[in-house]
């Protein structure tokens, strides 16, 4: 009789100690992660706790959370986060949110949308009200796909996404020191030039463009050429160009009409009218003659089944492995890519080289936009990629990590580059056509430029300066986690 009682007592005592040990390992992991900043050691503790208690959702959750947010390994994290989702019988939002965010980081936007929708359904079935995060995140995910209709459909009132997609009017008043650039480029003797004015695109429309010079001798008229819009400026023969001209522009921008991703991409063939933008080698710094670069692009895009998937893989690799920073020296695009930092121009040229290696028509676009706080308007280069299914060029910002290629609101595209990406090109009629943004680097910088944005929201016009609107905060899911937030307690 004593023996029969003794064995169960030992078993219960052993089980109690075993469970306590798992909780202690979990608590140790929390301490290592949050208080001691030792994520690798914390991961070891979380793994041991999970091995001991595999049916508690917080155990795989903290493994996935550590891998994703601290060790930057979302590919490994997603397995554990999805497991924590399956074990989450309590209806806690943490496993749902982190799984969705991880899928987004992996570029699996459709899966992230599906998971977000399932999470909201699960919370409602548990008689819980989903937090506003889910609606804002769902709106964000649709925006990254370029589906602005659904982005607005799910965006809560006053949300960051809805504010970003609000129609706006932009006025640019620019005192351009024209003779400084013409002198530097040895064009002072010419009587007629053309300068680019903002492009006509589905997402931006030029309302007016005017020139006011310090004297009245310069005449101007609008002209379209090689996919760009120009103001043709002409002075009487034998007279001098004025030192300065005043360029006044007014535009309407509506990003709701913008397609951020192509419906279909295909390689260009020599008979295609846009083939030169898929094969020109100079503005890719002759990368198409670099076997090492071509091999690298082939390796990066190997898992893509279609041309569009290969393009996505190439651009995702660039965003993940190349960071905005100091310009580096290099004789080739591959050297730039390997060194890992550069400005928007470097992003653009590397992306052009990658996409042309896939025979995709692509060109650089130069424009102006507000970026800092306080915000002067600064030059910025992006891409336009040709979508064969729509016979349309669509914008893509290879530098934008958070926006997945969607251009920044209030950015105005001025000039679509020719296949060689020339800052100035001699037209067939003998007139020099100049990318206006280059005046910025030749004496007409931010101190000469006024850039006003009027945002239309909820049937009201709110004029704001270029400072960020303090009432509209970026949602938490696009902020870089610092401490990681509160962990599950048990």
Description:
It is a single chain. This protein has 490 residues and is α+β, with helices and mostly antiparallel strands. Among the domains are: 158 residues, Serine Threonine Protein Phosphatase 5, Tetratricopeptide repeat (Alpha Horseshoe), CATH 1.25.40.10; 163 residues, C8orf32 fold. The chain has 15 helices and 16 strands. The strands form four sheets. The protein has a five-stranded antiparallel β-sheet with strand order 3-6-1-15-16, with no helix packed on it. It has a five-stranded mixed β-sheet with strand order 4-5-2-14-13, with no helix packed on it. Strands 11-10-9-12 form a four-stranded antiparallel β-sheet. A hairpin with a 2-residue loop joins strand 4 and strand 5. The N terminus is likely disordered. This is Transglutaminase-like domain-containing protein. Keywords: Signal. InterPro entries: Papain-like_cys_pep_sf (IPR038765), TPR-like_helical_dom_sf (IPR011990), Transglutaminase-like (IPR002931).
Task: Please give the structural blueprint.
Elements: H1 2-35, H2 39-52, H3 58-70, H4 74-87, H5 93-105, H6 109-125, H7 132-144, H8 148-154, H9 160-164, E1 168-176, H10 178-184, E2 192-197, E3 204-213, E4 219-225, E5 228-234, E6 245-253, H11 276-279, H12 291-300, H13 307-321, E7 323-324, H14 333-339, E8 341-342, H15 344-357, E9 362-370, E10 377-387, E11 392-396, E12 412-416, E13 424-426, E14 432-434, E15 449-457, E16 460-464
């Amino acid at each position: 009789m004593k023996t029969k009682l003794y064995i169960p007592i030992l078993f219960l005592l052993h089980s109690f100690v075993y469970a306590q040990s798992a909780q202690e390992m979990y608590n140790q992991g929390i301490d290592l992660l949050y208080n001691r900043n030792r994520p690798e050691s914390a991961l070891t503790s979380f793994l041991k706790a999970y091995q001991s208690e595999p049916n508690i959702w917080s155990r795989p959750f903290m493994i996935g959370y550590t891998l994703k947010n601290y060790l930057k390994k979302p590919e490994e994290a997603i397995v554990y986060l999805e497991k924590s989702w399956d074990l989450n019988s309590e209806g806690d939002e943490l496993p749902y949110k982190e799984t969705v965010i991880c899928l987004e980081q992996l570029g699996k936007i459709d899966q992230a949308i599906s998971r977000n929708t399932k999470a909201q359904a699960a919370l409602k079935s548990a008689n819980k009200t989903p937090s506003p995060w889910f609606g804002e995140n769902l709106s964000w995910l649709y925006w990254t796909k370029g589906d602005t209709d659904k982005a607005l459909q799910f965006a809560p009132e006053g949300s960051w996404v809805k504010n970003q997609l609000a129609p706006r009017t932009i006025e640019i008043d620019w005192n351009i020191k024209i003779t400084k650039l013409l002198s530097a480029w040895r064009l002072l003797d010419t009587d007629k030039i053309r300068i680019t004015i903002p492009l006509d695109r589905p997402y931006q429309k030029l309302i007016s463009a005017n020139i006011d010079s310090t004297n009245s001798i310069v005449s101007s008229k609008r002209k379209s050429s090689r996919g760009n819009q120009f103001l043709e400026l002409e002075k009487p023969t034998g007279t001098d160009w004025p030192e300065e001209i005043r360029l006044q522009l007014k535009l309407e921008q509506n990003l709701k009409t913008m397609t951020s991703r192509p419906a279909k991409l295909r390689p260009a063939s020599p008979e295609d009218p846009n083939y030169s933008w898929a094969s020109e080698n100079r503005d890719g710094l002759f990368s198409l003659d670099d076997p090492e670069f071509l091999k690298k692009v082939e390796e990066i895009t190997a898992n893509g089944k279609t041309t569009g998937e290969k393009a996505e893989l190439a651009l995702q690799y660039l965003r993940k492995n190349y960071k905005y920073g100091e310009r580096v020296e290099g004789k080739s695009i591959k050297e730039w890519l390997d060194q890992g930092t550069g400005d928007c121009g470097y992003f653009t040229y590397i992306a052009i080289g990658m996409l042309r290696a896939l025979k995709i028509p692509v060109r650089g676009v130069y424009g102006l936009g507000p970026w800092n706080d306080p915000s002067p308007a600064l030059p910025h280069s992006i891409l336009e990629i040709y979508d064969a299914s729509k016979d349309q060029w669509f914008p893509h910002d290879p530098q934008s990590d958070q926006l997945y290629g969607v251009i920044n609101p209030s950015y105005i595209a001025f000039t679509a580059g020719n296949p060689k990406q020339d800052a100035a090109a001699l037209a067939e009629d003998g007139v020099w056509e100049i990318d206006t943004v280059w005046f910025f680097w030749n004496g007409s910088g931010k101190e000469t430029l006024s850039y006003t944005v009027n945002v239309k929201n909820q049937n009201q016009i709110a004029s704001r300066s270029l400072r960020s609107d303090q009432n509209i905060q970026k949602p938490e899911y696009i902020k870089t986690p610092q401490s990681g937030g509160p962990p599950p307690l048990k």
